[in-house]
Design brief:
This protein is of the alpha+beta class. A five-stranded antiparallel β-sheet has the order 3-1-2-5-4.
Length: 124
């Protein structure tokens, strides 16, 4: 589907959940800009910038629709032979299959602080 839309490369980066995030370049660029515009004086923000922007790698989609995950990112996400590719709207997540299965088996519990304000009024 990406190739049909003229996308010949992707951006792959580390996520704080030990999976990889995969973006078409047009979706990645605003995220990179937003992160780059944040102050580097806050240790949390600086670590987030290091993790997400610092690990970002451009990869080519080959004629067969495959990509090569850089070794450092494969190591970071503990990817082996079996992986799970999970669609998330404008991006994809790439997980070690066992990690994804374990995460998916866990119930989603409401935070002790209550429903996040972003979900107030949200309906499925």
């Amino acid at each position: 589907a990406l190739q049909a839309q003229g996308c010949s490369e992707l951006v792959i980066t580390a996520d704080t959940s030990n999976c990889l995030l995969i973006y078409p370049p047009a979706e990645w660029e605003p995220i990179e800009t937003q992160l780059g515009n944040l102050t580097g004086f806050d240790p949390f923000i600086r670590n987030l910038q290091r993790r997400i922007v610092g690990h970002a790698s451009d990869v080519e989609i080959d004629a067969a629709g495959r990509i090569l995950i850089p070794p450092a990112l494969r190591y970071y996400a503990r990817l082996d032979k079996h992986v799970a590719l999970v669609g998330q709207g404008r991006r994809l997540e790439l997980w070690d299959e066992r990690t994804w299965q374990d995460l998916s088996a866990q119930p989603i519990e409401l935070p002790a602080t209550g429903l996040p304000s972003e979900l107030v009024g949200f309906k499925l």
